[in-house]
Amino acid sequence: NAMLNPADPQVQDYELSIIKEFAGKYKTIDGIIFDRMRYDDITSDFSVQSREQFEKYIGYSVKNWPHDIFCWKDDTNGISDSVKTYVSIGNIGVSGAGGISERVDVAARVKMIMSRGRADSLYIADKQNIVPGQLYGKWLEWRAHVIKEFLFRARKEVKDVNPVLKVGVYTGAWYESYYNVGVNWASEKYVPKYPWATPRYGKQGYAELLDVYMSGFYYENISDRNIRMVKDVLGGAVPLTGSICVSIYRGNLNGFINNMNELQSCEGGVMIFDLSHIVHYGWWKPLKEVLSNR
After folding, report:
1. Is 217:244 a contact under the CB 8 Å cutoff?
2. CA 126 to CA 129: how far, in whole Å?
3. What are phi and psi of 221, to 5 degrees?
4. Closest listed residue to residue 262, CA positions, set 214, 219, 232, 207
5. Phi, psi values for residue 118, rounded to 5°
């Protein structure tokens, strides 16, 4: 698949038209959950359109584009090693003798993509391979602003069609690196204390716009600390629905059960991603048993 530019008005209008049509046609649904409502990664989007919108947001022209945002760290091979390192964490390839197009084991790759590991790798890659410019923080703030404004419009479209329809979002639970995809899922009252966060980054938090929030605790070992961190970021703005990635525990039923039990403290319940794995692994009975403990 491919990611579109979230800041493009045509993209937003098209997506909103689909959302409105869906909400109007299916009257018996309980709500709509938005997933991947974000940028692709830190490299998107440096189009002319994004530049114009960013300059409008900050109120002046960017003198050195895109270096005032960020540039790749230089080394003995120029920027090539930095770029390759970053791209290798993408969705389909890793660096090797044949370059970044080398294929890897599909099951292992899916596990990597669906886990915090990839987010952590991107976060490390950001720090090791990117040189922030003087407007880097404002750029991150603007991207989060774009996503929040889209959610505001989407919520309005849904509620105008059906006021009782719930609006929800899924994101990963790793807040400290989610700036990478242009998303601030926190309460707008939360004040992030990270080097990349501007004074107004916190105001781009969108938790208050949600009826449902699903947080992906896609770790092999979910801890109470993981859950408390997310609750702290949300600040009570929306109930927390803990989400678990079943495929991470393939062949490890006890691990799945233990981590399901850890999520019992989430007041919004548990989201299971996804039930096809429960069917494939034959885990319906243990799933029923662990849910009966709520």
Report:
1. yes
2. 6
3. -135, 100
4. 219
5. -65, -40
